[in-house]
Model the fold of this input.
Amino acid sequence: METRQFTVSQDAEGTFRFKGKVTIHNLEYLKEFLDASLADLKNICLSMEEVVYADTASIQLLIAFRKARSSGVNWKITNISPELEKILKLNDLKKELI
Amino acid sequence: MNELDETLEIFFAETEDLIKTSEESLLRLESAPEARPDLEKLFRAVHTLKSGSAMVGFNHISEYTHLIENLLDRLRDGKLPITRHLISFLLEGIDFIRDMVDKCAGGDAGIEPAVLEAQKAQVNRFLGMDSINQEDADLSKTITDIPVEAEKGHYYNIDLIFRKNLFESGIDPLLLLLNLKEMGEFIEVVSNISELPRYEEIDIYKLYISWRVILKSTAPLQEIENVFMFVKDDNNIEIDEITDRYKDGIDLKAGDMTIGEALIEKKGITKNDLDEALKKQKKIGEILVEEKKIDKEALQAVVTMQGESRSAYRKTSIRVDVAKINYLVNLAEEIGVGLSRMQSIFSDEETPNVLLDIEQELENLLKVNREFQERVAQVRMFSLKGTFQRFQRIARDTALDQNKQIKTIVSGIETELDKEVIECITNPLKHLVRNCVDHGIESPEERIAKGKSEEGIIELRAYQKGGQIFVQIGDDGSGLNIEKIRQRALEMEIEVPDEEIDNETLMQIVCNPGFSTSSNVTKLSGRGVGMDVVKTEIEKLGGSLKIETAKDKGTTFTLVLPLTFALTEALHFREKGRSYLVPLWGLVGTEKFEQSNMRSFGGDEKLYRFRGNYLPIMSLSRVYGDEMPDINSQKRVMIFLDTGRQGFGLIVDEVLDCRQIVVKSLESHYRNVKGISGATIMGDGSVALVIDLFDLEEIFFNKT
Done:
């Protein structure tokens, strides 16, 4: 088992705060988190302020998850870190994720 | 509604807003070209339009918008100056986008390829220019005279379609993109997630995304290929040099080609791909007609019906402010809580005063429900902002067309009206705006000769007075030529009084079908149709149309529309134990009453010093014919009001708070009361009367 490179915590406002490197090495953990914590929520708010890196596999999974939410679900990603911003600009995936 | 319908509905609603924003920003940029925030706002709107249309598959809109976006980028970089010509060109571009969106909304996704290509070629020509001479009238000549120079460096089109199990070899496309970025500048990068399966079916370790990159680099082809050295063999990586037709990231020749040719030329697709796509493009109706399953007429009838249905569907959907929805949710929760309290009263046998409790709870529930109903109706209410912005544009275009100079002044855009009412009055108002510019505003020379500023003023104003909404369209032009109207009316055998024609009679004359005094039929108005239609449309809504005109002062058309109810900000105060609300728009300030600030004149004429001026002060007692209250009491408060014509002070017992209120008409429950525009039910269930400031002004200053 790989060491977990990122953590998710929920703050008082209900925002899930991602922290660290989100990569293919923790992809199953990410999927478990999505299925267990977010799948039934009507309002999903993720903060990416402390994400220093996210690879294609993780972003792809988040996009697929986001696309599977019905239109009744309010999906919001706030505070994208400058590092993640650069990545999403480079791979043109921001429009799919936000 | 399925998911696609919902996505489309959101797209259409958003697009409408984005187009309005773009237009608004362009008009502001025209008057203040240095306004950076407006340019950024415009850029963002166009960018969102581009990605939104691509997302719902309206690629022709996205392609065109992309070019406009590039053009705006040049403005942001200061490579192109903002000129009136350019603003006009961009406004036309926005109109073209609106046309395409409207066609899509009507179920007709197709646009004549030749039209689209011609429009794209126009933008490309603009992009090929480094500057535009704003005084040069012959724009097309200027454009074609600009030589296109080759830029330094190479342009590459790079298609990256990876095998699905790429991750297994430890390679992330992100790193390849990073390496590629180091070779130069990304002119464009487009991700494609169309192969991404549903979340439930996804293999998280497989790659489904592909990319296309346009890279500008000084490096030769070989070096670019080296970036993909380790993935080249077992992935679909295609790199093509496309330098000869690129300038500043724009394919200059693309505008003159059909989209299919452009794609083949760029080797983004093969001839086979294009042929296959074209085959699929055949419409189902055509196939069915060919196969003699239906005849052409039947097909046409269905297509028309479908188009009407879709546009009706589009018209019936509305975007609602989240705050309004939240209010409804809260009220629904209150109803829920009330009902459960009722339930517990019934189930608790030991409650001593069951009937009393139920009565109280029921009263509360009825009150909440009443507000709920009003708020639900409020969801249909929209501000006039978008409508007025559209009129600003119409006024501008009309003026430009006739070499007139105008300034548009807008006020009261926050006034809300029912969506359907807005839709119904938009066309009549549009006609009035054109009329004002076309017939009202004089040419700059005429204006100067009359001693006026060469810039005419078109004023769009909306406000609520009493139980009615007023929408005014006015100009400071020449005013209606009464003698000409009289003459024309006689020619048309319309009854005209011998004495002076008053405004009401004037309205009746100009609203005769076919009435026009204009000898100069412009492409906009003066064809003698319109005013009668305008009047009929407004009367259909239960409203009325008024006209005020004065020679060389201008003309003002006033639409008066009934108000079923409206949400208003108001100040709550008490006087003699009664609750009142005064609309916030008329409030200037409040302060504690100070005897030393008051001066008396004559009988009970009193003036009060407020912010350096003496204003007449009044008491509501005059509305009811009571005695003037004891103004010597130290506990009283002054409210200073201004109707725009008259400022005055109101002396009251107590000022409470500001709040948003729903004004209900008194007439439907009681009768019309002068000075009172309606009533509202306060949070504690009491009734507060809403002051009509204009009436108040009339009572105070005409009665005395």
In short: Chain A touches chain B at residues 24, 27-28, 31, 55-57, 60-61, 63-65, 67-68, 70-71, 87, 90-93, 95-96 (CB under 8 Å). The domain at 6-97 of chain A is CATH 3.30.750.24 (Transcription Regulator spoIIAA). The two ends of chain A are 31 Å apart (CA to CA).
